[in-house]
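User: Can you model how glutamine sits in this protein?
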Amino acid sequence: MTDTSSTLRIVWVYPDLLSTYGDQGNALVLRRRAEQRGVCTEIVHVNSSDRVPREGDIYLLGGGEDRPQVLAAHRLRACGGLLRAAEDGAVVLAVCAGYQIVGESFGDDEANPLPGVGLLDIRSGRGQHRAVGEVVADAAPALGVGQLTGFENHQGRTALGPGVAPLAETRVGVGNGDGTEGCFRGRVIGSYLHGPILPRNPALADVLLGWAMGDLPPLPPSWSERLHEERLAAAG
Ligand code: GLN
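Assistant: Here's the modeled complex, given as structure tokens:
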């Protein structure tokens, strides 16, 4: 990794296992929005055979199929780098399979509960039906990002414990399965939203960047804001 404290280090965790649904776009949007503000960035790809460094600023985990997800959880627990980075205050965005495995436990493809990494007080099992389609959800007011849009494709359902707050209240779609979507605690966010989530919700990208870098100047609206408005209108 570049030894420059002013460089924003974005760590893309396990692209070999958790990269099924285009979630790498989240890293590209973070880099673009940071660089538009004059911040140098580095995207570090960490495959599952590699050690997860604890020196990153923002860690991203994407979606994945059931069996790669089990392997990813096993390796992340064995390595410990992600847990230590989060304890040090790093920002984490975990999507779908990534969301489930940063929780306390999740069900494998036969619904056997397996231990997760333990960053979020959530437990995921399997629903009767696969949740597939567009999602619109009202984000927690504390985040100041308005409505979120995205696309979901998952069998899992997630129960939130008292240690986390819902990321959003679901208007369209399934999300966690109880009327909420995703959750957060401190600087760790989990969500079922692909799309990927950050290109479709640039205000949320700026929340993550703000947590990592401090106050940010606003950017002029771009295609990302237009896409956000278009998807909200289409879902309404
Ligand atoms: N395998 C998990 C599920 O079906 C996660 C799917 C995903 O990442 N899209 O719930």
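A couple of observations from the model: The two ends are 44 Å apart (CA to CA). The mean pLDDT is 95.
User: Helpful, thanks.
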